[in-house]
Target: 2-iminobutanoate/2-iminopropanoate deaminase
Amino acid sequence: MKEITSDDVPDALGPYSQAIVSDGTVHVSGKTGVDPETGEAPESAGEQTTQTLANVERILEAAGTDADAIVRATVYLTDMDDYDEVNEAYRSYLSEPYPARTCVEVSRLPAPLDVEITVDAELEGGE
Model:
């Protein structure tokens, strides 16, 4: 097991790793759409989704892979009415075949945001 960190994403909000590599898979902890440059998040759920996936990809790059290697994602929304907007942003950021995915509505997230995403991705040669 190996811890992965990136200085190019906001710090974790609790006692957990940004990501862990185990058996050829990168397990990325829940990330949100906070811009690492400004410390702010966009207002809309769609824009938060795009920024969240950019943050996830920075961690994947630190591990030696990228968003095309994502095999599973879990999307947490504070309002399922944002589902279509989130899907549009998700579709424009990721390519087919899309990862397996679960999307659930939660009452709130650790930060006052609308979207959090966790992913599992393969490392090179992990097919």
Observations:
- Helices lie at 45-63, 83-93.
- DSSP finds two helices and six strands in the chain.
